[in-house]
Design goal:
mainly alpha, 0% strand
C-alpha cells in the first residue's frame, strides 16, 4: 500500500497538519489519509506500539511473544531499503 501511494499520492506535512480541521468524510481528508506520508506515520506509530508491548486497539502483548516480535522487527527495520524509506518519512520519529 505504501509503495503504491508513493507514486499516486506522496502527500505533504502541510496536508497532514490541516487534517484536524477537516470533516471526517471530506474528500480532502480521505485523500490525505491515503497519502504515502500519512501511511508512513501510521506505520511508525504501529512500530512504536509494538516496541512498547502494546496491541492495537488495546491490550498488551504477552512477554514471550513480545520478545520474538521485537527481534523480528529489528531484523526487518535494519534492512537498508526499509530503513531509508522510514527515514524519509521522519528521521526523528524513526529513531
Amino acid at each position: 500500500m505504501y509503495k503504491n501511494a508513493i507514486k499516486a499520492n506522496p502527500g505533504s506535512h502541510k496536508e497532514i497538519k490541516k487534517i484536524i480541521d477537516l470533516s471526517p468524510d471530506s474528500i480532502e481528508r480521505l485523500k490525505t489519509e491515503k497519502s504515502a506520508l500519512y501511511l508512513g506515520y501510521k506505520l511508525l506509530w504501529v512500530i512504536r506500539l509494538l516496541i512498547n508491548g502494546k496491541r492495537f486497539p488495546q491490550g498488551t502483548i504477552e512477554t514471550k511473544r513480545w520478545n520474538l516480535y521485537v527481534i523480528e522487527l529489528a531484523n526487518r527495520l535494519s534492512k537498508e531499503d526499509i530503513m531509508v524509506e522510514l527515514l524519509k518519512i521522519d528521521s526523528e520519529a524513526f529513531f
